[in-house]
Amino acid sequence: MTLALERSRNMHMRYPPIDGLWTWDIKRDRVYGDANLSAYFGLTSDEFSRGAPLERWMQSIEREDRSRIRLAIRKAIEQRSSFREVYKIRSEKIGLRTILAVGQCCVDDLGKAALYPGWFVDLTQEAASEDDSLREIHGHVEQAREIAQSIGHDMLSYLLDNIQEEVQLKLGNGSRRRKSS
Known about the structure:
The protein is α+β, with helices and mostly antiparallel strands. It has two domains: about 15-120, PAS domain (Beta-Lactamase, 2-Layer Sandwich), CATH 3.30.450.20; about 130-170. The chain has helices spanning about 5-10, 35-40, 45-50, 55-60, 65-80, 125-150, 155-170; strands spanning about 20-25, 30-35, 80-90, 95-105, 105, 115-120. A hairpin with a 3-residue loop joins strand 3 (about 80-90) and strand 4 (about 95-105). Helix 6 (about 125-150) packs antiparallel against helix 7 (about 155-170). The longest helix is centred in the last third of the chain and has 27 residues, at about 125-150. The protein is elongated, with a radius of gyration of 22 Å. Mean pLDDT is about 80; it is low at about 1-15 and about 175-180.
């Protein structure tokens, strides 16, 4: 089955098609994963097939996301619950990527955290598409603001100016100041 056919077949699903799988043996602190996971997290084939400590996998997570992800993992283990986080990873093979990781803490017969299986999807393309959409919105709002200004609708011009600023903030290049009318 082609990738396009598989993606279209799964369009009705809650999550996009899976890009990688893992299982973390919590008691032995060994994470096992598939070849995609290895490429995304920069591990050797030996490390992903024999398992590597969680901390080795954490090294590929961007520094600004690491503490948040550690806390979310710790919380999932303590509460014996699920994990769902979006964060950035970097590897030599794949580069910088944004992923959604979903996992579930499983317990042994004594109720202690034992296994932590999970999967991830690469959201990088969706994030790029969102930025493209925001840039397009920015252009349309700019045109609407200029029209409102030219016909003397100061309040509408003011509101559109603030919408533009919000779009710029989403794109990461805004100033966070409010304009006055």
